[in-house]
Amino acid sequence: MLRHFYLAGGLSSLALGGVGVVLPLLPTVPFVILAAFCFARSSPRLEAYLLDHAQFGPHIRAWREHGAISRRGKGAALAAFAVSSAAAVIFAPMPAPLITLAAALIGGTWIWTRPESPGPEV
């Protein structure tokens, strides 16, 4: 039963990651990393597919081995936080933007403090 839960979670995460490919503010790689985590507990074949994937495999391995995020990934995430925060300040009534700003500061600080991927930029 738990295996099916992880399989459903992995497939859902992979679907959200796929949506993130076309929606600029929805992250792709974190959902694919979560999918790999779930597939490691439910489907070795799907996990191997993700680890061997040309685009996502290096990101998954860097996260698993070093807890690392590429410099480009950090920049994209922080830019998305900045755009979201600016939109909230401009369009949302107070005090809602303060919640968005707090979340962006907390999340952005955490991302900024992660080590960068060793070796060539992935």
Summarize the model shown:
The protein is mainly α.
Give the DSSP E fraction (strand runs of 2 or more residues).
under 5%
Radius of gyration: 16 Å
Question: Helical residue percent?
Answer: over 70%
Helix/strand structural class: mainly alpha
Main sheet summary: none
By DSSP, the count of extended strands is 0
Domain module count: 2
Q: What's the shape?
A: globular
Low-confidence stretches: none
Distance between the termini: 36 Å
N-to-C series of helices and strands? HHHHHH
Give the rounded overall mean pLDDT. Answer: 88
Total of helices: 6
Pfam family, one: DUF454
GO cellular component, one term: plasma membrane
InterPro entries: DUF454
Transmembrane segments: 6-39, 79-112
Provide structural commentary.
This is DUF454 domain-containing protein. Keywords: Membrane, Transmembrane, Transmembrane helix. The chain crosses the membrane at residues 6-39, 79-112. One of its GO terms (cellular component) is plasma membrane. It comes from Croceicoccus ponticola. Helix content is 75%, strand content 0%. The chain has helices at 2-22, 29-40, 44-52, 57-66, 71-91, 96-113. It contains six helices and no strands. With 122 residues, the protein is mainly alpha-helical. It folds into two domains: 2-66, no CATH class; 71-113.
